Amino acid sequence: MPIKKEKKKILVVDDDEFSLAIANAMLSAEYEISIVKSGKEALSVLAKGFVPNLILLDLLMPEMDGWETFNKIKGVSYLHTAPIVFVTSVTDAAEKKRAMKIGAADFITKPFEKEALLKKIKVLVEKHGK
Questions:
Q1: pTM beyond cutoff 0.85
Q2: Per CATH, domain 9-128 is 3.40.50.80
Q3: pLDDT in tens, 112-126
Q4: What does the CA dihedral 108, 113, 117, 119 come to, rounded to 10 degrees?
């Protein structure tokens, strides 16, 4: 009987329905995906026990932006090493520099190239896999 390989988990946080649909379509075959529309929802899912191998986080969201969400996630002891990738429409070099300085695993601007994103995700999940 073949051993079933457990899928790595990715949390996708974005307030844009289209971006969430694209992420789900691209990633769900290979990863277990949890999709949320806000930073508050992300924190709720994480508090309920979803421990991702990677987090894809939009920067520009209402209520709680990506920066605040990032800081709150990194403040949770068992999540402080989870790689967080900002996937955003922000193209400002200063924002990318800020993201890398605070410890983001990567900063990818939308629209992204599918194959490049999948390759980066695979590398990060394997590098930080549990």
A1: yes
A2: no
A3: 788 888 999 999 988
A4: -140
